[in-house]
Structure formats: structure tokens, C-alpha cells
Amino acid sequence: MKNILEIMKNKNEVLLMYGAICLLGALVCIIISRYSVLEVMGVNAWMKPIKFFISVTVFSWTMGWYLQYLENQRQVEIYSWSMVVLFSVEMVLIIYQAAQGKMSHFNQETAIDRTIFSLMALAITVLMLHTLYIAILFFKQSQFEAPETLILAVKLSLLVTVLFAFEGFVMGAALKHTIGSQDGSQGLPLVNWSTRHGDLRVAHFFGIHALQIIPLLSYWLARSKREVMVIAFVYFAFVSYTLWLALQGKPLIKL
């Protein structure tokens, strides 16, 4: 672990530090949640900032690690700061709404709420388009100082991540994430995915975290590029299945 942090510090200190700041933000929100009585749809209002802070930490550190393999470090620097700015916009707005006990996503109650939701959608859209550009740079580069299987896994995971990040538009168009009912139905612990109806957040979650899961599975299981492609395809099929399931109004786990 110490070696990984040292490499990150040397290769991308910006994302290392930003991930650490977001992790600290998650801890602060956990403390606040212990004393806050604010709720959004029956869930402590600070749960969403906690989950998003953790997700941003994981995303930042993962991308910080992968970006060391790109030769165009000027574009890496631009993307790193783009991530810091755009994620920060997202997190500030989520925290602002949580502090008022209001929904941050899909909230159309007032003009301010609509503006906040639109700004969040814009920030993430720009970031994912920039991430797609980084994926293109990976595909265009011919030589890497890393095993071919790892680089292929990173390339494919980036594509799946961007694709299912844009699945957020499906939720945005519907102004909810539950199919077959209104948001706020009985859900699984922590993630709160509906256990009675379809939930579009399932595919969104697994799709975005393809960024970590596909390379990890490839590291553990793959011995060739063909095996990496099989792993990526199976994972893509699984995430697509969770999306299909949600669109049918069916939960991933029914309780």
C-alpha cells in the first residue's frame, strides 16, 4: 500500500490528494449523520453525500493510477484538474441540498432546485465526455510500459464506465430511478436499491465501477488478451442484464 501511494504521489499527486480530501469529506458526513435528523425519502439526508464522496475517492484514485500509462501527460494534467473542478461542483451541490433535507437529483420543486439538478447533470456530462477522450488516447497510443492484458482491461473498462455513466440520462428523463413505482420504496441496506421494483441505479453503479472490476478480474483470471475480452464482455452482459431487469420493473434482489 505504501508503494502504491508513493507511485501515485510521483505520478499524479493532484488526484491522490483530491481522493484523500473526498475521503475526509465522507468521514465528516458520517459524523454529521450521527447527529442529524434530516431525512430524504426516509433515509438520512447525509447518506447520499457519504456515498458520493466515497465513489469520487475510488474514481479519482483509480484514474490517477491508470493515467500514469499515458504518454501525453499534458492531457493527463488537464483531465485531472477537470475532474477536480467538475466533481467538486457536483459534491458542493449535493451537500447544499442535503443540508436542507432536500433531494439533489430529480428535484423539480423550485427554480433553484431545477437549476441545481441541471448543473449537476452538466458537470457529470462534461466529465464523462472528457473521460471518453482519455479512453480514445489509450486506444491511440501504441506502446505502454505495462502488460498488454492490463492495458486492454483498462481500455475496455473505460468504455463500459462511460457508456453506463450516460445511462444516467434515462433516470434524468424519467426524473426518478425506480421503474414501476415512485422513488422511496423498500430498499437494500446502504445502497437502498429497490427490492420490489426495477431500479436503474443498479446498472449505473455496476457500470461505473467496471473501471475497477474489469481490470481486477483480468488481473486475477486472465492470462491473455482474449481472456480479458471475454471477461469484459461477460461483465458488460451482466450490467446490461441489470438494466434490462430494471426497465422491466423487476428488482435485482426481491425481498
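[next item in queue]
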Amino acid sequence: MTSPDCVACGDDLAPENAPRSAGAIALTLIALAMGGFAIGITEFAAMSILPDFARGLGVDEPTAGHAISAYAAGVVVGAPILAAFGARFPRWLLLIGLMGLFAVANILSGLSPNFETMLVFRFLSGLPHGAYFGVAALVAASTVPLKFRTRAVSTILMGLTVATVLGVPVVNLISQAHGWEWTFHIVGGIAVLTMALVALFAPRDPPHPGASPLQELRALKNRQVWLTLGVSAIGFGGMFAVYAYLASTLREVTHVGPHILPWVFAVFGVGMFSGNILGAWAGDRFGFPAAAGVLIWSAVALAFYPLASQHLWSMLVVVLCVGAGGGLGSILQTRLMDVAGEAQVLSAALNHSAFNTANALGPLLAGAAVTAGFGWASTAWVAVALTLGGLAIWVWAWLDGKRTAVAR
């Protein structure tokens, strides 16, 4: 069953969007993906320059890590609030506004005179993250026929995966040469570029006067919405449980030098990029059951992680496969379009709140296993448990959806 909101689901294109040539659709998707690219850089590159801005702002590295947490907190808080209150605005204008806030907050992050100010600006930087991805996914889906919408949605996430493979290493090199502040200034510049591209190429949808915060909040009464978000919050936690301690595992267990680490993380990014493409294809072909396939794939790959950790070549293979589990994102995003009814904007944005919940939960539980003395490779068993937990929630959602005639 599809959403009644044709602009969101892309079933029959709205009059203001149709007809659109293949070139016009491609330009729209590139414009939207550019925002994902900017968000990917600020989220992942901030981790890579953490020692640099810790020294620059006069704090130790564990304290500097609070800036990462502040950004994640901004995502969780901002996604539902900005999505609910922005639902009635034209989506192309809302995207420009969200990127404007993102640009200003990142530029100010680079100008922070002290760590306390940095925390505030990192929190503000995170506010538009989830709402941008949610609204961009709806706009992307509206430009193509229903059978291609998961692939259209995946292009937004592809911007993020390209950032992990190319953007983060390049920005990191620039920042090492010219100062950590450049990471945030570059992100701000890319955000401004995104605003211009969206203004030029995004379809001009009208205002949505029938939408309201109350209407959007009705999505929270829908059990299918919560179950889908649960798959994301728990199932994705497995990938983050391993990713957060990948560098430590490579140093302490695989015994590789620091010059090898960027290449392994690049392999992870290639896995995410590939998984995003294959996951989108599977989502369009099989619908929600494709999510179960990705979760099973991830659980198997993660189970091999402890064995693979002894050798670099085997780690590269397993890390590539674990990264491919990122293909789950676009499948869950389109699932939310199916089950959210009229609350399309809020539910789409909440997927990224759930994603960042996984980003917090996975490392927390994996870190507890390491602290308890089970070793770095034990993070994989925590990851397997979380992934299977996400699969269990998927089974619940699928059976419940069949009973309520929601599953497609």
C-alpha cells in the first residue's frame, strides 16, 4: 500500500513536477545528494580531526568527543521538531532553509573561540540533519515512478557514502595543512552550493496548508512507524558497534600501522557505497522483505569479524561486507513512506533520529564489552546481537503489517 501523498511516494507525479525529463531528474538528485555529501563530511570528518580541535581549543580528547555527541543530540532533537513545524512549507524552500541553518552553524563551528561555544554550534549543526534527509528523500521519490523510488531515495544517502570514501580524506588533508577550522568552513561552503543547486533544479511543489505539527505527530500513533524505526535504531547499531572501534581493533589485534587505517576506512566506505546501490535495487524489487535480507547479510559478515581480525587481507574483505549493510537505510526510508499516511515529513526525518540512536547505542554496548575484558574483537558479538535484534523487530513488523494489510 502506498501513501496517499503522491508528492511523497512518487506514484503519480504531481502536476507541478510532471513531466520531467531524465536530465531534469538527474540534476534534482545531484542537487539533493550534494546536501548528503556535506552532511557526511561534517559527521565523519569531525571524528578524524578530533585530536586537532582538542589541542586548538585546549581540551583533552575524551572531552573533545563531547562535540561529536552534541552533533548527534542535535540530530535526534532537530529531526522531529523541524520536520513537524516545516511540513506546511514548500519542500524545495524548506530544503534551502535547512541547508542555510546547516551552513551557518558549521561556519560558526570553525570560528569557535572556545570549547563551550563549539558545543553549542555543533548541536545547532545537527538540528537540520534528519529533517534535510527526510524531506530530500520525499522530493527525490516524487520525481520518479513508484517502482524506482527506493533508488531515487538512495541517491541522497549516496552523497553521504561518497563523503566517507572521498570527501573525508580530502578535507582531512586540507585541514592538516591549514588548520582544523577548514573542515567546517569547507562543509559550510558545500552547504551553500547545495542551496543554490536546490533553488535551480528542485521541483517547485506548492505550500501544504493542510499539513500541521499535530497532523505530523499523528505518525507517532502508528505502530508500523515505531517498528520500522526500531529496526533502524537496533539493527543499525550492529554496524556502529564495530565501526566505532575498528581503528583500535586494527592496531591492537591486526597489528597494522597508522598509515594503513585510512585505506581500511576507505574500503568500509566502498562497501557502504555498493550496499547502498544494491539495497536500493532490492528495495524496489522486493519491498520491505529486502530489509531482512540486508540484516541477515550483516549478521553473517559481523560473525566472521573476530576470525578475520587476525589478518589484514581478511579484515578488508569483512569490513567491505559490513559496510555493505548500510544498504538498509534507503529500504527503511521508503518503508516509512508506505506506513506513515499523511505524516510523511516527520516519519521520514525520524528515520535519521533512529539512525543516530543506533550510532550512540552500538558503541556504548560494544565499549562496555571491551571494558569488561572481552577484547576488541568482542565488539562483533555485540554487533551480531544488535543486528539480530533488528531482525526480530523486522519479523514483528512484517507479521503485524500482514495483519493490518500494510505490507506490500
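[queue empty]
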